[in-house]
Amino acid sequence: MVDCIGFEIDDEICVIVMNNPPVNALGAQMRQELDRALDRAEAHPGVKAIVIAAEGRGFSAGADIKEFGRPAAAPSLPELCNRIEACSKPVVAAIHGMALGGGIELALAAHYRVAHGTAKVGLPEVTLGLIPGAGGTQRTPRLAGAVVALELMTDGRPLSARRASELGLLDYLVTPLGQEWPGPAQEVLSGAVAYAKQLVADGKGPRPTRQINDRMGDFMVYHAAVDTFREAAKDSHSMAPGKIADCVEAALLLPLDAAMQFERTAFEDCLASPASQGLRHAFLAERLAGKFGGVDGVQPRKIGEVGIVGGGLMGAGIAVACLDAGYGVTVAEKGVEAMEKAEDRIVAIYGRALGRKKLDEATLTDRLARLTMCDSLNPLAAADLIIEAIPEDMAAKADLFAALGRLAKPRTILASNTSYLNVDALARQSDRLADVIGLHFFAPAHRQKLLEVVVAEHTAPDVVATALSLAKRMGKVPVRSGVTDGFIGNRILTAYRTAADHLVEEGATPYQVDAAMRDFGFAMGPYQVLDMSGLDNSWARRKRLARDRDPSERYVAIGDMMCQAGWFGQKTARGYYVYSKAAPRGAESPDTLALIDSYRAERNITPREVDGKEIRHRCLLAMIAEGARLLDEGIAQRPSDIDVVMLLGFGFPRWRGGPMKQADMMGLLTLRNALLRLVPEAPQLWAPSPILNELIKNGQSFGDLNR
Ligand code: 3H9
C-alpha cells in the first residue's frame, strides 16, 4: 500500500502532507497515517509546531464517501479531529484548493488556519443528506457564530477564502502569485511554515477551538437563529437541515464533549436515512456515468470549430453551451430570416445571463466574437464537429446527414441531437459510419447538465472519447446509451406515461396522477409536462411507431383523441389543463374530463377508485421495469446511469436516488412479486425482465452492477 502521508521536519516545524489522490479523501488509511504522524511529531523533542498541508488539487474533499455504510476503522474522523485539537504543540492547517466537509472540519480542529487566497472552504454534507459529523457543527459556531454556521451548513455551497477569513474561519491568507510554479500547494505551505515559525517565536501555543467562545453571541439571538433554520428545515425531504439546527443549538446548551456525542448520533441517523442513501448514490452515480467502456487510453479527436445545423430552441442552447466551452461556433439555418431569428435567440440567452450578472460585457464580447451565423450548410465544411439540431423528422434528418457526409472534411464528427430517432440509420445516410454519434442535449441545452451520448453500432472509439471530452469541457454529465427509440430517458418516460394512462383509463383523473407524482417529489406531474412540451410531439411519435405496434398491446387513445380535437397543451391554451389569464399555470379542464368519461363509457369501463399511493407505486414500478429492460438489451451500461438520466434529465427527485436505486431499496424480490401481480393487465409494461430474475437468483442488487 502506498503511503498517504509525507512527513518532514524543517527547522522546528514538522510538516505533515496529505497525499491521497484524487481529492485527499480522509479514508481509513489516511486517518491512521495522520494519527501516527501526529504521534511522531508530538513525541519529537525538536518539533515546536506542526503544519498539516496537502499535495494535489486541494486540501481535502472530506470523509471518504465510499466508506460510508461500512464498519469504520479507528480512528474515526471525529476522533482524529479531537486528537489534533488536543495536540500539545500548535497545529497549523495549510489550505489550498478545496477544503470541504471533513476536510475543513479537520482544519477547524487545528489550532490555526492559513489558506491560499484562491482556496474555497465549505460544509457540503447537507447535499449528501448528512450533517458535518467531525465536530463541524460545534466548532463552526464557536469560530463564526450561529448564523454563519447555520447558513454554511444548510446551504452547502463553498465560500471563498476571503469570505471565510472575514467570517473568522481562517486566520491568515497567502496572496496568490498567479504563476504556474510553484503553485498554490507550495505557496500556502511556505506561508503556513512561516506562520508556524512566527507562532513559535512569539511563544504562542495551541489554541483549541473548543475554548473559543467569543462569537457564540447573545443567547436570545442565538436561539432565534436556530429557530428560524429549524422552521425552514421542515419542508426538507432530508432530515439533515433539521439535525443541523439541533446540533448548533446543542453547541450552546451542552458541554462540548456531550454536544460532540449529540452530533455523532445525529450524523448516524442521517447516514441511515433513505434520503441520504439516495443523495450519496446520486453523487457517486454522476461520477461513474462518465466512465465509458472501451475508450480507456483512446485519444479524442481535436475539436476547435463546431458547426450547428438548426438555430431553434435546442440549436441556440447548444450553440451557447459550445461558445461557453470555448469553441468557435458556426450556426447554419435555412434562409436569412431563420438565421436572424436564431441569432436573436442566442443573443437573448446571453442577454438574460447578463441581466442576472452571470456574465460580464467582456466575456460576452469574447463569446459572440467566436460565433458565425450562416444561411446555408457550406460554411460548415471547415467544422471539426457538426451537431444537427433540426426538428424530429426522420426524412429531413436523413437528407441532412447525406448532405453532411458529402460536405464535411475527413474525420469531422457528425452528431445528431435527436431525442428518439435511429442514429445507426443516420450514420448509414452519411456514408461515414465510424464518425457518427448521437449527442442528446436537454433543454435548455446551455444549462441542463445531462448529455446522453448515443453510441451507434459503428461509432469509432475516438469519436466516443471526443464526446466525453466535449461533455467535460461543457461541464455536462455524459451518460452512454445504445441505439433504441427514445434512448434511456425517453424510453423510461414512455413507460411512466403508459402506466399513468392506464390509471386514467381505469378511473384516476390526470390531476390526481399529477398531484400524486408531485407528492413523490417531481416538480410537475406527467400531464403537466405533456401540456408544457406539447401533446402533438408525443402524438407524432406514437403515429410513427403505430405500424410496428403489437395489436394485442394495451393502448390508451385518450391523448390521441385530445390531439385530434386540436388540444396540444399550453401552446393551444388547452390540453389536460385549460390555460387562461386567470389560470396561467392551468386549471382542471371539464372538457378533458368529459372526453375521458366518454372514452371509458364507449369501452364499458366502470371507473374504479385509484389513490395516490397506487399511482406512485405503479408509475415507479413502470420506470424500474423499463430500466431493467434497458439493461437487458445492453442499451444502458449500468443501473446507476439510468438513475443519472432520470435525476438530471427528467426531474426524478434527487433524494430518492433514481428508479434503480429505489428498486434496490424496495428489494428485488418484492419488486418482482409486485410486477408479476400486474402482468395480466399489460404484459408488455409489467413483465419482469430476465436480469431481475438473475440478480435475485444470485442474491444481488442493481447496485452490484454499478462498476
Ligand atoms: C464528510 O466529510 C462527512 C464528515 O463531516 C463526517 C465524517 C464522520 N470521498 O467530483 P470529481 C472522488 S462527507 C470519496 O469528479 P471535481 C469522486 O468520486 C464528504 N471520493 O472532481 C471522483 O472519483 P473518480 C463531504 C470522492 O474536480 C474523484 O474524486 N464532502 C470524494 O469535479 C473526482 O471527483 C463533499 O461532499 C469524497 N469525499 O470536484 C465533497 N470527493 O475519479 C464531495 C470526490 O473515481 N466532492 N471523490 O470518478 C466534491 O464536491 C468534488 O469531488 C470536488 C472535486 C469539488 C472535491
In summary, what is this structure?
The chain is of the alpha/beta class and 707 residues long. It contains 29 helices and 19 strands. It folds into 3 domains: 5-272, 2-enoyl-CoA Hydratase, Chain A, domain 1; 305-481, Rossmann fold; 489-705, N-(1-d-carboxylethyl)-l-norvaline Dehydrogenase, domain 2 (Orthogonal Bundle), CATH 1.10.1040.
Topology:
Blueprint: E1 5-10, E2 13-18, H1 28-43, E3 49-54, H2 77-85, E4 91-95, E5 98-100, H3 102-109, E6 112-116, E7 120-122, H4 136-144, H5 146-155, E8 159-160, H6 161-166, E9 172-174, H7 184-201, H8 219-233, H9 240-253, H10 256-272, H11 274-289, E10 305-309, H12 313-324, E11 328-332, H13 335-355, H14 361-369, E12 371-374, E13 385-388, H15 394-407, E14 413-416, H16 423-430, E15 436-441, E16 450-454, H17 461-474, E17 477-481, H18 487-506, H19 510-520, H20 526-533, H21 535-546, H22 558-564, E18 577-578, E19 587-588, H23 590-602, H24 612-632, H25 639-649, H26 659-666, H27 668-678, H28 683-686, H29 690-697
Parallel strand pairs: 2-3, 3-4, 4-6, 5-7, 6-9, 10-11, 10-13, 11-12, 13-14, 14-15, 16-17
Antiparallel strand pairs: 1-2, 7-8, 15-16, 18-19
Helix pairs in contact: 1-2, 2-3, 4-5, 4-9, 5-8, 5-9, 8-9, 9-10, 11-25, 12-13, 15-16, 18-24, 19-24, 24-26, 26-27
The chain binds (S)-3-Hydroxyhexanoyl-CoA.
Structure description:
This protein has 707 residues and is α/β, with parallel strands linked by helices. The chain has three domains: 5-272, 2-enoyl-CoA Hydratase, Chain A, domain 1, CATH 3.90.226; 305-481, NAD(P)-binding Rossmann-like Domain (Rossmann fold, 3-Layer(aba) Sandwich); 489-705, N-(1-d-carboxylethyl)-l-norvaline Dehydrogenase, domain 2 (Orthogonal Bundle). It is 50% helix and 11% strand. It has 29 helices and 19 strands. The protein starts with a strand and ends in a 10-residue tail after the last helix. The structure holds (S)-3-Hydroxyhexanoyl-CoA. (S)-3-Hydroxyhexanoyl-CoA is lined by residues 22-23, 25, 61-66, 77, 98, 100-102, 105, 124-125, 128, 130, 132-134, 136, 284, 287.
